[in-house]
Structures are given as C-alpha cells and as structure tokens.
Task: inverse folding
C-alpha cells in the first residue's frame, strides 16, 4: 500500500509561452495565441505538494502539513507569487513557463528542503486553469492534462443485452436523459526535459475540436456513428474517447465525469476504473496519548483544541477489476454507492475519538482515517478497491493506493 499526503498552496503570476530561437509561426503552433502576449498573460495557480513515507505510530502523521505549508510556502512566495516568471525567475530564462515546467521547477526547488525528514516529496501537481494542469514526479516523469466539456443525451443501455437485462441492470437510467460531461485527457512522458511542449497546441486544439464536434449536443445512442454498436455507459464512453484520441496522439489515459462526484477512467490494455465521491461530517481532536499536553499543543496547534473541532470530509473511492464488454460496466453503481454509505455511517455526525472505536488508541489524523476506512470499504467491494482519497479540507488530501 502507498500512502501520500498532499498540501495545496496558491499563487498568482504572469508568463509568456515563447522560445526565443523559434519563429513566430513555430511558437504559435507550439503554444497557441497566448504566445503573442508580449508582456505576459496571467494565471491563478494552485500547486499540490505530494509526500510519501512512513506514518509515525505515536503522532499518526506521515508529515506535519504545517511544515509543508511553511517550507514550501517560502519558495512559492519568494520565487513564484506575483512574478512575471519569464523575467523574475531565472529558471525560466531558457525554458518557457508551461504548466509542466512550473510543476517541475517547484519540485526541484522544494524537494531539498525536506532532506531532514523521513517523508519525501514524490510529486508536484499544478493547476493553472479549469482546462489545464500538469504533474511532475520524482522519477522525472511528467503528465500534461487537458480538460474539455460537452453536453449530450443518452439512454444507459447495451445493445448486447435484452430489454429485460437492461432494465434490471440500469433501471430508470434506461430512459432518455442527459449529462454535462467533463473529460480529462492525460499525456505522459517518462523522462521530461522541459525543452519542448509535452503536447503541442495545434495538435491538442485539433483533437479537442474534433471531439466536441462529434459528441457535444448529440444523442449518443443514435447520432454518434462510432457508438452505434457499443454499450452507452460512462465506462464505455471513456473507453471510446481513449480509443479515438489514441489514433492521433500518444494518450496515456482518460477520465470522464458524468457528474462532479462520479467518473470512469480508461487506460491502455483495456483497463477501466470507476470512482465515486461521498462526503460525511464529523468532529475530532488531534491528540497523541504518548505526548504531554504541551507537546500535543505544539505539534497539532489549534487542532488540539480540548473541546474538539470538525470537518466536512470528502471521500473518493476508485474500484478496478474486470470490465464486462457485454454490458459496458465495471461495477454496479448502486452497489458502490451503498458500500460507501455503509462504511461511513458509523462516523457520520460523530466525534471520531469519543464515539467510535477506530480512534481510541490512535490519533484521528487524515492518515489514520483513510487507513481505517480502507478495510471497511474494501471488504464490501470484494477487494476491488484500488485507490481511496480523503479530503479533510480543500487544501489537505490523504490518499491510499493498492500497489
């Protein structure tokens, strides 16, 4: 199992995407119209610093999130926030400040600051807009993400099933209905040097235009030729988008949301995953029995408030397994929803430390909460859980992955 802890920091900056040695036409093809922003174009960036390592059994923490905020925050404020990156940050004198290059530089600048702790920075994720983000990994790999939206109607069904089978499997979703879909295309390089765009603007722009033209405001069951003989499910549609893009670009994976809290992912080798988010409300207090009151107050700060505090936690469970090509499904949506609800029910509107058994002997840190939830949920899902995420706040995320 792999556990990671993520802290989110925000900053604002301007930048120009341009390579001095290239012609105007080459820059336009690589970066699009933004390359003409002579004095820079602005973004509100959101950076996620992702750490992995062992959990201290006494404190329940992989790393003190306040330390991430303090140490990484100094770098962000000094070198990135409210800067014209091309001129105010020497790292971008020779390479354009694309999302991928900024994520890479954040990793390079921040990773050495944590050489004195067991937890290690394993990735930096950078979101520059709702449509663009990037992730740089400690291995040197890098991913570029492009989001696009489309609206479409459908009947959830499979032409490979009988009417009775479709009704039994999909219920009221067999009736005509629609979704505002949001899809993410992820491209990956295992060794990213930052000199060339991971994906050129002209290529991704043509790709997204073609997808919108084919899918937007369509009745998927009848108006999209490529879907005529396929199941019309979220899983099947994610696979279809993956296959379409893969014919022209080196796509790594697709994530397709039919709503904010429900998505399917499609990768190579016909791999499919299904994810669902579920919130719950609970109170807790961070307090380690092995530490003195003063040590607890110093370690956990205001989270050690004797009378407690609380959160609207958000969980996200992703399941894998065998994809059924006949029905177009990976896992029953209702069963997944029920498994999450049943697993979380003992914690809903409770004080985790005082009213549950899970944290009698362990601090109710995000690390311990996600580790306690995993077996409860995995057992109900037949050991098909592959990733479990917990947001304590919008800025603090804890993730457990099956390895």
Result:
């Amino acid at each position: 199992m792999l556990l990671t802890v993520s802290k989110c920091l925000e900053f604002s900056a301007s930048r120009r995407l341009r390579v001095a040695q290239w012609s105007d036409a080459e820059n336009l093809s690589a970066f699009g119209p933004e390359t003409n922003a002579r004095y820079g174009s602005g973004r509100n960036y959101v950076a996620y610093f992702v750490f992995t390592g062992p959990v201290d059994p006494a404190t329940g923490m992989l790393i003190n999130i306040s330390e991430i905020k303090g140490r990484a925050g100094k770098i962000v404020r000094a070198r990135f926030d409210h800067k014209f990156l091309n001129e105010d940050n020497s790292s971008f004198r020779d390479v354009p400040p694309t999302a991928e290059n900024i994520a890479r530089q954040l990793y390079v600048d921040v990773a050495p600051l944590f050489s004195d702790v067991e937890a290690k920075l394993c990735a930096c994720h950078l979101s520059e807009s709702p449509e663009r983000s990037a992730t740089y990994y400690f291995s040197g790999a890098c991913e570029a993400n492009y989001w696009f939206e489309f609206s479409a109607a459908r009947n959830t069904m499979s032409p490979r099933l009988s009417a009775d089978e479709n009704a039994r499997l999909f219920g009221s979703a067999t009736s005509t209905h629609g979704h505002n879909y949001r899809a993410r295309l992820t491209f990956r390089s295992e060794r990213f040097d930052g000199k060339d765009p991971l994906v050129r603007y002209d290529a991704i722009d043509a790709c997204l235009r073609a997808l919108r033209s084919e899918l937007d405001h369509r009745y998927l069951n009848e108006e999209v030729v490529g879907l005529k003989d396929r199941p019309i499910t979220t899983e099947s549609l994610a696979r279809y988008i993956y296959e379409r893009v893969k014919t022209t670009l080196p796509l790594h994976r697709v994530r397709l949301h039919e709503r904010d809290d429900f998505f399917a992912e499609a990768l190579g080798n016909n791999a499919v995953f299904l994810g669902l988010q579920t919130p719950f409300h609970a109170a807790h207090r961070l307090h380690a029995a092995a530490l003195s009151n003063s040590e607890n107050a110093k370690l956990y700060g205001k989270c050690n408030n004797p009378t407690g505090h609380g959160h609207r936690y958000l969980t996200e469970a992703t399941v894998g397994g065998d994809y059924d090509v006949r029905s177009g499904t990976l896992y029953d949506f209702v069963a997944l929803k029920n498994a999450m609800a049943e697993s979380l029910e003992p914690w809903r509107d409770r004080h985790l430390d005082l009213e549950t058994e899970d944290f009698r002997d362990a601090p109710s840190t995000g690390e311990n909460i996600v580790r306690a939830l995993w077996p409860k949920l995995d057992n109900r899902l037949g050991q098909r859980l592959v990733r479990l995420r917990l947001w304590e706040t919008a800025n603090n995320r804890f993730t457990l992955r099956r390895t």
Notes: The longest strand covers residues 2-15. The CA atoms of residues 231 and 267 lie 18 Å apart.
